[in-house]
Amino acid sequence: MRSFTITTLGCKVNRYESEAISEQLADKGWWYAMDKGITADLCIINTCTVTQKAAMQSRQAARKVIRNHPGALVVVTGCYAQIAPEVFRAMPGVHCVVGNTFKDQIVPLADNRNGQETGITLVHDFSTPCAFQDMPIKKFGNRTRAFMKIQDGCDAFCSYCIIPHARGRSRSLLPEIVLKRVGDLRENGYAEAVLCGINLGRYGEDLDPATSLLSLIRRIDGPTEIQRLRLSSIEPTELPEELIEQTAASEHICPHLHVPLQSGDDEVLRSMNRPYESKHYRDLIHHIAGMIPDVAIGVDVLVGFPGETDGAFENTCRLIEQLPIAYLHVFPFSMQKETPAAALQGQVPSGAIKRRCQHIRQIGETKRRKFYEKAIGATSEILIEGKRDRTTGYLKGLTKNYIPVLVEGDDELMNRVVQALITKVESGKVFAERLFNQ
Ligand code: SF4
User: Fold this and answer.
1) Number of helices and strands (H, E) in the chain?
2) pLDDT at 438 over 60
3) pLDDT recorded at residue 387
4) Which pTM value belongs to this model?
5) Domain spanning 145-374: which superfamily?
6) Ligand 1 within 6 A of 336 CB?
C-alpha cells in the first residue's frame, strides 16, 4: 500500500479540492501518512498566492516536504503553481507542477508512476475558456460540516487581486449535480452543507440555460432535506433581495452571511475597482440585519491599499463601528506584481499597515464579543463537531449563526444537532447547556 501526504494552504475551495484528491487516492488504496517520521511515496502541496505571505508559506511547505520525504513523488499544485510554475520548476526535488485545472490529473499521474515524472508541468493559461472541473466528494474527513465547491473562477478583477489570474473565468457545477451531492451528503449523515466558490454570487450565469445562486438555493432549501445550508463568502453586489428574504424565511439556510467590504472609503473602493460605494454597503448590511433575526454578518477588510490615507482608514473604522456585524477578517495589503494595484502611487509603509491592522482588529474583537454576549439566554440549535475542546474537554459545536460554543455531553452527541441554552461568555469562549426536553 502506497502512502501520501497533502499540504493545503488557502481558501475553502483549495481545501475542498485537497479533500477530493485525498478521497480519490484512498479509493485507489493509498493511505494517508499522518505520523511524523514516515516517508511517504507521494507528497502534494496545494499552494495559495492570495498574499505574498501565503506564497512564502507555500514555498516553505514545499521545501519542508522535500526534506522530510526523500524519494517521494513531489507534486506542487494550486494557485501559486498556476501563476508561477517556474518558481517550483526551479525548486530541486519538485517533480510535477500542476495548475488548478489539471488537479484531476494528479491521482492518475501518481497511480501510474513509472519514474518518468520529473519535469512534468500541466498548466492551462486561461487564454481559452475551460469547463468547471468537477471533483466529487462523498465524505469530508472527520468533519461534521461538508464544504461543497459549486463555482470556480472570477470575472471581477479587483485591482489588488491575483485570483482571477489563478482561477480563470467564473464557471459553475450543474445544479442537478449539486442537488445530487447535497442529497448524498445528507444520506452520509451530514447535517450541514457549506456552498463555496471563488465568486459564489455569480453561480450559474455561465451555464446554458443560465441559472442563479438564488434559484439553486430554492431547489436545495427543503427538497433535499439537508438540515443546515450555509453560504461561504458572497459579494455585496451579488445579494439580491429575494435571497435575503429566502434566508430570513428558511428553516435550513443558516442566518450567516460573509460579505467582503475591503474599504469604507469611496475613493479607495474606486481605486480597488470595487463596484459599490460605502453608503450602498452600509444600507445593505443594516437591511440584512433588519430582515434576518440574529444574523451573523462577517466582513473582510483590506488594510493599507495604495492611497489609503489616515483619513481613508478612519472612514473604514467609523463605518465598521456603525455596522451590526458579528466578526471581521482583516487582511494587510500585499502587493502582487501581476495586478494593477502594484503600479499605483501612494504605497503605504508596512509599519502603518501593521498599526492599522492592530487597530481595526480590536474593533473586530469588540464586535465579536458583543455578538456573543447578545446570544446569552437564547436557545440555539447547535451542531456538535467530532472533537472536544482541549482546555475544557467540553464538546465543540456551532450555532446556525456561526457562534462556536462549548457544551458538556457524551461522544454520542458528536455530529448531531442539539438544542441548547447559551449561558455565558468567558475568556472569549461561549458556553451552552443542552436542553433535554427539546
Ligand atoms: S471578487 Fe475581487 S477579491 Fe474576490 S476573487 Fe474576485 S477579484 Fe478577487
Assistant:
1) 13, 19
2) no
3) 86
4) 0.93
5) tm_1862 like domain (3.80.30.20)
6) no
